[in-house]
Amino acid sequence: MDVQQETGVGSEELEVWIDQDLCTGDGICAQYAPEVFELDIDGLAYVKSGDDELLQAKGATAPVPLPLLTDVVDSARECPGDCIHVRRVSDSVEVYGPDAE
């Protein structure tokens, strides 16, 4: 079963955000999806906008490009800090991450 079937998201728009209070700075997310995640000089991971800008505001979200969905979900699964949240844009329901139903 692929990630789209597993999460039931189909082609819905998704966004991702990182809770920096829980981030351990391991950089696993940036290894899986460097187009979406980046470690900053403070040693914590942040999401990046579609034009590669680091988004440092608390709770900042970035779109999850469909071709990178598996990499983003794998990042959330492997994150030792359980700080990566993937949610549907339409209703803000978390589909993968520590608060997913």
General shape = globular
Mean pLDDT: 91
Unreliable segments of 5+ consecutive residues: none
Helix content: 10-25%
Biggest sheet: strands side by side, in what order? 5-1-6-7
Order of helices and strands: HEHEEEEHEE
N- to C-terminal separation?
18 Å
Instruction: Specify the structural class.
Output: alpha+beta
Radius of gyration: 12 Å
DSSP summary, beta strand count: 7
What fraction of the residues are assigned to beta strands by DSSP?
15-25%
Q: Helix count?
A: 3
User: Biggest sheet, in brief?
Assistant: 4 strands, antiparallel
SSE layout and pairing:
Elements: H1 3-7, E1 14-18, H2 28-32, E2 37-39, E3 45-48, E4 54-55, E5 62-63, H3 69-78, E6 84-88, E7 94-96
Antiparallel strand pairs: 1-5, 1-6, 2-3, 3-4, 6-7
